[in-house]
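Internal QA ticket QA-208
Title: Verify multi-chain structure generation after dependency bump
Assignee: T.L.

Test input:
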Amino acid sequence: MKQSLIEAIGGVAAMERVHKAFYDKVYAHAWLGPFFEGYSQKLIELRQTQFMARKMGAKQMYPVKDLDVVHHRMYITEELLLVREGLLRETIEEEGIALNLVARWLKIDRAFWSRVQKGSLDEFKKIDLKNEQALIVERPED
Ligand code: HEM
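Actual output:
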């Protein structure tokens, strides 16, 4: 039987290590970090692993939340997604995962970008967030 991607990368344990190191970088990042203020890093790591492991063929239970809804109030641009992807790529490579598997992982991740990505700031400001507060983080100066 063909090996699933989650098995090929070293199982859920390998993914847990990647996500721990990845969110260490994300939480410390000047642009990405502020989005996560107030959210438990441990819980985010757990949810991300449950979500992605399942997409890679693991039989994990995931209490499904709609990604559009979860990221609704966040002003997430393509540029920001590319910064996040850079950190994710770096972290997966540091785990020693083969490059072809890194590419497969990132392809699955990219499949969800359209659920979280917003257009221009003007368009974003027109979205009716009801009583949610918009979460906009300006790109810090380099
Ligand atoms: C730069 C882009 C992104 C930012 C700033 C971001 C930020 C966040 C934040 C702040 C949360 C916590 C929200 C909450 O618990 O209410 C969250 C949850 C989550 N995000 Fe993202 N996210 C991004 C991209 C993505 C992408 C591309 C994916 C999927 C591949 C993803 C998957 C998830 C999942 C699975 C959760 C947990 C949802 C749950 O609790 O059920 N995120 N994200």
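Spot checks passed. The CA atoms of residues 45 and 87 lie 15 Å apart.
Status: verified.
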